[in-house]
Specification:
Radius of gyration: 47 Å
Shape: elongated
CATH architecture of the largest domain: Sandwich
Distance between the termini: 132 Å
Number of domains: 4
Strand content: 35-45%
CATH class of the largest domain: Mainly Beta
Number of strands: 34
Length: 529
């Protein structure tokens, strides 16, 4: 009998539509409750009544009636509408009794799986589960639950709103992670940018809650944990987007670390913000060494090449530092070589001839300063020695004994016109005295293994005292071969009889009938074994 009455009712409704009557047996009213959210799940929340639908069945000849709803959400160029094949549980109306639907009652209708997406991609929506920002209308109609012809049994009720979750403020000053220079009297400008001005709900109705926390500068605590676990040292509410933190506010301590954030709130309660209105969290340090000590930290470096193997670096010293770290590298390379110093001067040895180097220095001690300027310098070209060259090069840098920390394998020792590259070196007495092994390039580029026992080397890497000995018993034959070959290739005749041959310093002198022929040797004594 009930189903027959339902069929008769549907027939009468269809007839009424044809006869121009707009009186429906079900009266429907839809209402959106602010603040408005772009998340459909907020309207399906059992604890909320953000979307209310009120239904009343006015046909008193029928005690109850089952319906279903059709919800249509229209935005800017797209529509979400209840699927025609969606078959939710019936909504039962009692004659003359209003019925309120909200929250969990509407959850099946707002489930994205039960909606047709027109003009918008469903997968794009489900990535954020939020509708694009914009102006929306939500329209609701009721239909007979059992009629396959989709017969409308209520009026259409529409409500409009601006759907979005507004963005929280963005913090600008002081810059996150930077240092703030202390001022006397205290004055710090905190400034943030409102990100919700496009919302018609809260554009002119927003206030800001400012909060500031203090932590130790060496603390490894996460700023989020600081905010959750400690009380701020200062908080206030303002309708401006800036705050001048002056002498009326709690004084900040030099070198301390501070955490701050801002929360936006709509004073009318009509707008919601993402992250409950909280901005990102920023930190700053109040007064770094540079801002407090100023020029007492600055280092200025200068550098120059001295010889083909030697350069020097000089810089100003500061009382706040107990030592300095000098770094040098060949231009175009990546690796720096460290020199630990206690003064403002350092010699750089073992360099390549005719090359460009760059250097920098910083102070260290109880604090570590910033790197100085980067200074560049060029080494000289490798000198061309000749057998009759008796030039004695001046000591361009005052020589001291070579310190033990610089006596390393690979050290290049200048011995006369020759260079000895060490393969083994060890202290053998007072500062500057060493023993070891290596090889020298003599007679052109031919390497000759050598050893030295208790020789003196200065910090310009020069061999000053002691003997460097060759390590081959065939050296006499080798030298004789070079002598014969050189004599054959450079033979010349000089008439006369040899009167005498003698050694004068590092010269071999031959006297022929009152004339001299001098052979000049410019290397230090190398004893042949």
């Amino acid at each position: 009998m009930r189903r027959i009455k339902s069929i008769i009712l549907v027939f009468l409704l269809a007839f009424c539509e044809v006869s121009f009557s707009q009186i429906y047996p079900v009266q429907l009213s839809a209402q959106l409750i602010p603040p408005y959210s772009g998340y459909l799940t907020d309207y399906a929340d059992p604890s909320s009544e953000k979307l209310k639908i009120i239904l009343q069945f006015n046909d008193f000849t029928t005690p109850q009636y089952n319906i279903r709803l059709r919800i249509e959400i229209k935005g800017n160029g797209f529509t979400l509408v209840t699927k025609q094949l969606f078959n939710p549980p019936p909504i039962n109306l009692q004659s003359g009794v209003p019925l309120l639907l909200s929250g969990a009652d509407l959850a099946p209708y707002l489930n994205s799986n039960n909606l047709d997406f027109i003009g918008i991609n469903q997968s794009q929506y489900e990535q954020r589960m939020a509708l694009p920002e914009g102006y929306y209308s939500v329209c609701v109609k009721a239909y007979d639950y059992y009629n396959p012809g989709n017969i409308q049994v209520s009026n259409e009720s529409c409500t409009q709103a601006w759907f979005t979750l507004s963005d929280p403020p963005f913090l600008n000053l002081p810059q996150c992670g930077k240092n703030v220079t202390p001022q006397t009297p205290q004055n710090i400008l905190f400034q943030w940018t409102p990100m919700h001005l496009s919302s018609p709900n809260s554009a002119a109705n927003t206030e800001y809650e400012f909060a500031l926390w203090e932590v130790r500068p060496d603390s490894s605590a996460n700023p989020n944990q600081v905010i959750l676990s400690t009380a701020p040292i200062f908080s206030t509410t303002t309708n401006l987007t800036l705050l001048n933190y002056g002498i009326a506010e709690p004084p900040l301590n030099i070198y301390m670390k501070y955490v701050w954030r801002v929360r936006a709130k709509d004073i009318t309660g009509r707008d919601w913000f993402k992250n409950t209105g909280y901005s990102q969290i920023c930190t700053f340090v109040y007064g770094d060494l540079q801002s407090v000590l100023g020029n007492a930290l600055n280092l200025t470096l200068s550098a120059e090449g001295i010889t083909h193997r030697l350069g020097k670096c000089t810089w100003n010293t500061q009382n706040i530092y107990t030592k300095y770290l000098l770094q040098v590298r060949k231009t175009g390379t990546q690796n720096w070589f460290d020199y630990n110093c206690t003064t403002g001067f350092e010699k750089i040895n073992n360099l390549e001839p005719n090359a460009t180097y760059e250097a920098r220095v910083r102070g260290e001690g109880t604090i570590t300063g910033d790197w100085s300027n980067t200074a560049t310098f060029n080494t000289n070209s490798e000198p061309n020695y000749s057998c009759n060259d008796q030039t004695q090069y001046a000591d361009v840098l005052a020589a001291q004994p070579l310190p033990a920390h610089k006596a390393i394998i690979g050290l290049i020792i200048q011995t006369g016109q020759f260079e000895v590259i060490t393969t083994q070196i060890n202290p053998s007495g007072p500062p500057g005295w060493y023993s070891g092994k290596g090889y020298a390039k003599v007679f052109g580029a031919l390497p000759l293994a050598v050893q030295f026992n208790n020789i003196f080397i200065d910090d310009n890497n020069r061999h000053q005292q002691g003997v460097i000995q060759a390590l081959t018993k065939g050296i006499d034959n080798w030298v004789h071969e070079w002598d014969v070959k050189d004599a054959e290739e450079n033979a010349n005749a000089m008439p006369g009889v040899v009167d005498s041959i003698y050694i004068n310093g590092n010269q071999i002198c031959v006297k022929i009938q009152g004339k001299f022929r001098i052979l000049v040797l410019h290397f230090r004594p190398i004893k042949m074994l």
